[in-house]
Design goal:
Double Stranded RNA Binding Domain, D-Maltodextrin-Binding Protein, domain 2, five-stranded mixed sheet, globular, 3 domains
Length: about 300
């Protein structure tokens, strides 16, 4: 069976797609996967801040279009890039075993940064949480592929990246510090991959064989939290779910002011990912999160 996989063309996106292809071949050696490379809005514009480009879908819309118009059978994404609600014509067919969800500093550790040091990040979520820890820091925007970003470590400062991205490219040794999710709440779906298919297409059943149920439940709970907030990766919002042996989910959610002066953090537990994510979002909003998002 031959599957065409739509993906972005960066080194990390190719790694992710090859990883999915390897999982599919392991489940069925007759499967072959051909890459369909797609350029997205986020790839074309590497200078404007993500929140100015609209956030949701800037790294996924064109990949999904390749799926919808029949150029591809599956679409491979970083789960953190996906809009919080799946398009009606598509199905999130599989979330394989989740990678490391944590954020990392490249350059210097937080406690080694001098007063007023510069930290580069394209994420308002990361900026807000770092500003809360170190109000003295100066922040600049950071865009581009992994190698481009690594070349932009400020003198005496640091850049912030997803640790999973460094690991996947064999660059994890560059991390000066890796934050525990309790220190810096990750982006929704960070570290996880997501494979979409057209609704009703036979490829969805094939892709479902690489699903890792605990990872899927955690990602679904985080996405339900974000969907209830009505936002995407352009907002200072984070969530991280864990699951125990009895399939009980615990989700930590955060909404922050970009300057880090106000942060609302809450947690919720339950077995239904949609219910617990939505309930957590309602709690965060009522505790002051709504006024922060309205800004």
């Amino acid at each position: 069976m031959k599957l065409r996989a739509a993906t972005r063309s960066s080194a990390l996106a190719r790694w992710q797609s090859e990883y999915i292809a390897a999982l599919l071949r392991a489940s069925d050696p007759s499967i072959t996967v051909e890459m369909v490379l797609v350029e997205t809005t986020g790839d074309r514009n590497r200078t404007a801040p993500i929140h100015e480009l609209g956030g949701q879908g800037i790294f996924t819309a064109e990949v999904q279009t390749a799926l919808l118009d029949g150029r591809a059978d599956i679409a491979v994404h970083s789960a953190k890039d996906l809009p919080s609600r799946t398009a009606d014509e598509l199905v999130l067919a599989a979330v394989p075993f989740r990678g490391d969800p944590r954020d990392a500093l490249v350059g210097r550790r937080l406690d080694a940064l001098e007063l007023g040091a510069t930290v580069a990040t394209g994420s308002v979520r990361r900026q807000a949480q770092l500003a809360a820890l170190r109000p003295d820091l100066h922040f600049t925007d950071l865009r581009g592929n992994i190698q481009t970003r690594l070349a932009k470590v400020p003198a005496g400062g640091a850049i912030v990246m997803a640790f999973a991205a460094l690991e996947r490219l064999g660059l994890d040794g560059l991390a000066a510090q890796v934050f525990d999710p309790d220190e810096m709440v990750p982006q929704v779906g960070q570290g996880a991959l997501a494979v979409e298919c057209r609704k009703g297409d036979p490829s969805a059943e094939v892709v479902a064989t690489i699903e890792h149920t605990p990872s899927r439940l955690c990602v679904d709970a985080e996405r339900a939290f974000l969907a209830e907030l009505g936002g995407g990766c352009d907002l200072p919002v984070g969530a991280y779910a864990t699951i125990d042996a009895s399939a009980n989910l615990t989700v930590l959610g955060l909404v922050a002011a970009i300057d880090g002066r106000q942060i609302v953090r809450r947690s919720a537990s339950g077995h239904d990912p949609s219910e617990v994510g939505a309930r957590l979002a309602a709690d965060v909003l009522s505790a002051g999160g709504r006024s922060l998002l309205d800004r």
